[in-house]
Amino acid sequence: MSRNMGLSSGDKLGPYEIQAPLGAGGMGEVYRASDPQLRREVAIKVLPASFSRDPDRLRRFEQEARAAAALNHPNILAVYQFGMHEGCPYLVSELLEGSTLREQLLRGPMPVRKAVDYGAQAAHGLAAAHEKGIVHRDLKPENLFLTKDGRIKILDFGLAKLIENPRASDPGAVTLTEGTEPGVVLGTVGYMSPEQVRGQSAEDRSDIFALGAILYEMLTGKRAFHKPTSAETMSAILNEEPPVISQIVPAVPPALQRVVQRCVEKSPAQRFHSASDLAFGLEALSDTGSAPGGAFVAVKSKIGWAWISGLIVVMAIIAVLAVWLARPPAIPVVEAITQLTNDGEPKTGQLLTDGARVYLNEGVSGSLRIAQVSVSGGDTVPLPTQLVSPQIQAITKDGSALLALIGKSVSPRESMWSVALPAGTARRLGEMEVTDASFFPDNHILYTSLSEIYAAESDGSNPRKLAEVSHLNAWFPAVSPNGNRIVFGTFPLTSFAYGPTFEAASDGAGLHEILRGGKGGLPSDICCAKWTPDGKYFIFQARSQGRWDLWVLPEQGNFLRAPATPIRLTNGPLSYSAPIVSRDGKQVFALGSKERGELVRYDAKSAEFVPFLVGVSAFDPTFSRDGKWVAYLSYPDHTLWRSRPDGSDRLQLTYPPSIVLDPRISPDGTRVGYSTPESIAYIVSINGGTPQKVSDNVQSLNWSPDSNLVTVAAIVPGRGYGEKNSSEALIIDLRNGSVSVVPDSVGKVGPWFVEQEKLVAATEDQTKFLLFDLNTGKWSGLAESPDSFPVWEPSLDGKYLYCTTAGADPKAVRIRIADHSIETITSLKNLRFVDDFFEQMQIGVAPDNSPLFTRDVGTQEVYALQVKWP
Length: 870
Prior knowledge:
Elements: E1 12-13, E2 16-25, E3 28-35, E4 40-46, H1 49-52, H2 55-69, E5 79-85, E6 88-94, E7 98-100, H3 101-105, H4 112-131, E8 134-135, E9 144-147, E10 152-154, E11 161-162, H5 194-197, H6 204-220, H7 230-239, H8 245-248, H9 254-263, H10 275-286, H11 305-326, E12 333-339, E13 347-353, E14 357-362, E15 369-374, E16 381-382, E17 391-395, E18 401-406, E19 415-420, E20 426-428, E21 436-439, E22 445-449, E23 452-456, E24 464-468, E25 472-479, E26 485-492, E27 501-505, E28 512-515, E29 525-531, E30 537-544, E31 547-554, E32 567-568, E33 575-581, E34 587-594, E35 597-603, E36 608-611, E37 618-623, E38 630-634, E39 639-643, E40 651-652, E41 661-665, E42 671-675, E43 680-685, E44 692-696, E45 698-703, E46 709-715, E47 727-733, E48 739-741, E49 749-755, E50 758-762, E51 768-773, E52 778-784, E53 792-794, E54 800-804, E55 811-816, E56 822-827, E57 844-845, E58 851-856, E59 859-868
Antiparallel strand pairs: 1-2, 2-3, 3-4, 4-6, 5-6, 7-9, 8-11, 9-10, 12-59, 13-14, 14-15, 15-16, 17-18, 18-19, 19-20, 21-22, 22-23, 23-24, 25-26, 26-27, 27-28, 29-30, 30-31, 31-32, 33-34, 34-59, 35-36, 35-58, 37-38, 38-39, 39-40, 41-42, 42-43, 43-44, 45-46, 46-47, 47-48, 49-50, 50-51, 51-52, ...
């Protein structure tokens, strides 16, 4: 035989006679052969000599042999012998007749009954392997074989890992450990678990993730994680959820969808505890058994027919009740999704509907406008109004007017206005400043003002306090369809994270919590709950790893059932927000966003914005003083990365679910400081590792030029966001941990170092910049604007302050600190900034002193989701 060209019919391989090639299998070629001693046909996998000279490939092939030979289960390929022939290792196994699951899937999705059966068989096979301490690590449709009699066989344990301490007590269990270098990614893209993508150790639940992805594909005919490139696919595994199965195949039972979703959870701890549990769950879904007939034959001779009949009735009732209690409740399902707008304009804030039209805000912060579109889709038409940057909040029950808020982008409290429809004429409602507002059915107003909730007449008069949530700010108020109850969300005073959602009677009585992020299977951030028109559900949005999905919560639990639990309505691939249910209850209108930010540098010579860090969706860049390192946040998930300015030597420094804000590299380029939505400051090495906490209840960490000191904005307890005395500046010496307060810094934004002995800060309304001299302890003026400076950043050399102005024609300017002169760099009117929850605009300064911005290159459009309610 020729070891380079493969084997031919009639060739000998040890005692076996080759009959025909069967094709490739894992790392080797597979042949049909005859076993003359036992007079049976077998399959032989041969590793070519060129591969056998590779120690790693040979080791893995031998590992497959040992792993497979240790297993004896009807759902695992039986291995008979491992041998060598003329330098070629080979593996002898049972001969299977049928096809791989991949070949079956080429025909499209499978019936639910078959998918459940095949999935349960595969789970049983994995359970047997896991009990022997063996993890497959490369499960995929190509490695599942469907025999002609309908049996699933697991193939190719070539990537199997033998665990040191298997759970089985069987003294014959394999205990050999095969090491894997940390950080080495093994497996097949598309079916790898998140921990495998990260190069971490793969355990039992990594196989469960892969089987969940295969189940998804069997049910839908589509791969759960499939992108144009391997890198994008791996990113999707880490950061995205597969589309909801019911959106592709509506007939799949909700219970089965939940089984698949649990398999492909990002965290191993949230998946099934074991493959045995998964097999049990799948078999329970297909269990249609009933009690055997004749159960009462022996009783007939002892008791009368009346007793028999009564007993039968009682048992029937118990059986029906048991089945009803065990059956999962019906849940809302998205049946179809339709895109209503397609104008490419940025969209933000609330959606409102009068039954015929959907009203929305277009534009960016500071220059918003009201637009409208038909509920059936079409052109987006502006609603003319004289208001400057109105933010729509609610619509009257008869559709005659919108409620809008007007205020500066840096202010948390704004004035309320009524905008008549369709004319757009506006009038102010009351004189109070509010944080958010909505309408009662009779057009009375429900509004929030920091931690307090109020009601007022329809014209804004006679405000009366309903409730208060101490140590929280109240936002996103809504009223039940019958006007009897209210609901609102919250923010903690000292963080950017969302707080719990509360419900109360319309007079404020009976205030109680109904939702909290991180509980009941919810992500940590939840927002904007409101009732469906029939009052049976709350609909809200929840954020996970940079993407919003829509969820619903039944208003109360069903009789004899456990308390109501949240139900996911969407699962990507778009980020859905601002949900509002149509007047007839059949549709949910929402903003569907594909979020991506392009970092651009303003080039003064060409007067153009040119891409920077091409191909990376980046946000909030920061540079070391020598210009050799850049750190930035990936957008929209706010994960911290560092690289060289040309994009090389890229390293991830933080991981989800952590969210990073305001990253700053130390001038010496060795560390990166940042804060979190929970107002905790951290420092992490530029080379990675565990972040070290600096302080609680602080934001906006910044470095001194010598990298020994940091400034932070400390939250003053007991004040609401935006109130006076809300923060003060601290200087922390990282060498000894000593903390000092910057005099007269209460209510100032910042301050940041521009020199070792000089700080820069903004007033709380951000209309003025001030300098503080650490030697004299005095503040002095630097510059001011009639509107405000929303964002700003000192240059690396400390000579300039780069900032943006607000208003209808925002500009990028720089202020020379030495002489306080202001120079306009360029207009930003036509630059579309990302609409990020934490920062709607940002500015960075490159080593060559050119400003950097993140341009929004994603999409935000209005979608209608057709929902089937129980």
